[in-house]
Write a structure and sequence with these properties.
The complex is a heterodimer of chains A (261) and B (385). Chain A is α/β, with parallel strands linked by helices. Chain A has a domain of 174 residues: P-loop containing nucleotide triphosphate hydrolases (Rossmann fold, 3-Layer(aba) Sandwich), CATH 3.40.50. Helices cover 34% and strands 24% of the residues of chain A. Chain A is built from ten helices and ten strands. In chain A, α5 packs across α6 and α7 runs parallel beside α8. Chain A is globular, with a radius of gyration of 19 Å. Chain A starts with 18 loop residues before the first strand and ends with a helix. With 385 residues, chain B is mainly alpha-helical. Chain B has one domain. In chain B, the strands form two sheets. A two-stranded antiparallel ribbon of chain B has the order 1-4. In chain B, α1 runs antiparallel to α7, α2 crosses α11 and α7 runs antiparallel to α10. The chains are: A alpha/beta (261), B mainly alpha (385). At the A-B interface, α3, α4 and α5 of A face α8 and α10 of B. Bound molecules: adenosine-5'-triphosphate and magnesium ion. Magnesium ion binds next to α1 of chain A.
Chain lengths: 261, 385
Amino acid sequence: MSAAQSENGRTTTPRRAETLLYLDGVSVSFDGFKALNELSLVIDRGELRTVIGPNGAGKTTMMDVITGKTRPDEGTVIYGADTDLTRLDESAIANLGIGRKFQKPTVFENLTVFENLELAARDSRGIFRTLLAKLSGTDLARIDETLATTGLVEHRHRQAGALSHGQKQWLEIGMLLIHEPQILLLDEPVAGMTDHETEQTAQLIRRLTGKHTLVVVEHDMQFVRDLGARVTVLHEGSVLAEGSIDHVQAHPRVIEVYLGR
Amino acid sequence: MTDTPNDGAPRRSLLTPRGWAVFLAFGFALVVVLPILNRVVVTGSFTHVPDYLIPLIGKYCTYAMLALAMDLIWGYAGILSLGQGAFFALGGYCMGMYLMRQIGDRGVYKNAQLPDFMVFLNWKELPWYWHGFDMFWFAAIMVVLVPGALALIVGWLTFRSRVTGVYLSIITQAMTFALLLAFFRNNMGFGGNNGLTDFKDILGFPIQAQSTRVGLLIASAIGLGATYLICRWIVNSKLGRVLLAVRDAESRVRFLGYSVTGAKLFVFVVAAMLSGIAGALYVPQVGIINPGEFSPAASIEIALWVAVGGRGTLAGAVIGAFLVNIAKTWLTGAAPEIWLFFLGLLFIVVTLLLPRGVVGLVADQRERWRARQAARQAQAAEAAT
Ligand SMILES: Nc1ncnc2c1ncn2[C@@H]1O[C@H](COP(=O)(O)OP(=O)(O)OP(=O)(O)O)[C@@H](O)[C@H]1O
Ligand SMILES: [Mg+2]
């Protein structure tokens, strides 16, 4: 087990961390332009991984490939032991326990925080079931737990539309968490947040590590530093460097790419 | 964990205590007070309710039911159907067919087998689709089944192919217009442009008798109350929250795994059925059903009632239906040429100045009044020190 992970309750499993997600030689091109260029990446179970890279490096496209939104031209994405995600559609991938937060917060503005979480809860989706649905104790407990994790307890009965930008982002993360996903993909979670909100988001993400595997794409260097996790630098669709934040920031190619723009 | 667990779910009894009080007071006024003031209090007395008002208020009740159904689909699910009049009219025609069959041999042509207009057209036997309508129970089932089936088909075709917004409005307008044209044709067998009229009795009661009219008012008021509670129950359920979510961010609801098509289809069919019942209660009170009820303009008016009252509130739909139709009754009597201008003006005023309708206006005023009260109290407290 690597040093970055050992602080989170996984000390009971001393064996080497198993691989949860393995991108192998993934290429995607749009009209001849290679957004991903033989990208290979390994994410361990329970790991927190940050992904940085200049605009257009292919970070969002990578998430699109993992979640089935975009099909790669070449390469495979292996999830768990032997599931090839490139053969599955979006909803099947979501049902495997892969949750994704998009850049723009999309909560239901006219519902309360509680109701947003209620709709996201893993219950029957049938029309007549929802008509007659009564909230079970376990649902309620799960919603309470999620409210606590995301720091939205005192906002439970507020309309989501009245929340701050940061709170909406947390609510959306909560709507993913209620499904207890194996792996959470967060695309620029602190974009547009105040410094204080950014700090709180870092705390939230650190709280989630260990319980979930997290892949966080971010531009905000201070935030990435706060997370203190392994960093992967993408550039022109493939991995440029990987390691601790200090390691990659000292990497000559990374400096060149970031300053050369 | 944090709070006590029963603080979790917002409690949702069907109505609040104040809601029940208003509901029961309104019901009592319609079902008990009005009939007494009409039937028991002597004519000429100051409190006597004149006979003509009874079917008029009964008619408003059926319009209010129609408005509730409209609010359910538009105010909550965001489906701006401009064809709700069609479901109302279909329910009305089903009731009209029953009432036609009740005439028996008392028509002008004294033909016990055929309604007058069929005799006039030289038809020799009853078309197959008229069979069964001599029985009230059959007609009553058709009142909900026919509009429901049409809504199921139209809704399935449109929602499944994700037709929304103005395109959906246009399709529903086309639907009601097509029915208008069809029902105008004599050979459809629904009385052509005269429609169905000259009814004699309903369930054995003479339809013109004041006691029957009072009975129909009571039935309409109960129908309105039941419709309100059904709609309230739906919007209070989890499905109601799904509907609101569909209205605000349809694709996100789909992403969460709910069937947007199914949710929309459900309320669209329920609304059509409720509209059909409203139409069936309407026809015996006005004594006629003709293709005019299918006119596209009539359906647009329904949306206006809801907009005036305030959509997404249910109570607003009822208030809007009563207000606009009282104004219509009064204006078409006092200055009929003004009505259409008034309607247009209302549309502009509501869109520009009253986006949340009368209910929203009242809520805002109350909010402002409270704020002013609080400010005054604070001032007084300051002056006292
Ligand atoms: N659907 C598409 N069609 C054409 N080009 C695309 C498409 N999606 C992405 N691209 C291109 O692929 C490249 C990589 O895009 P991507 O969104 O993955 O970058 P990113 O690393 O997320 O950048 P940013 O930091 O700006 O979010 C960009 O040059 C983009 O213009
Ligand atoms: Mg991006």
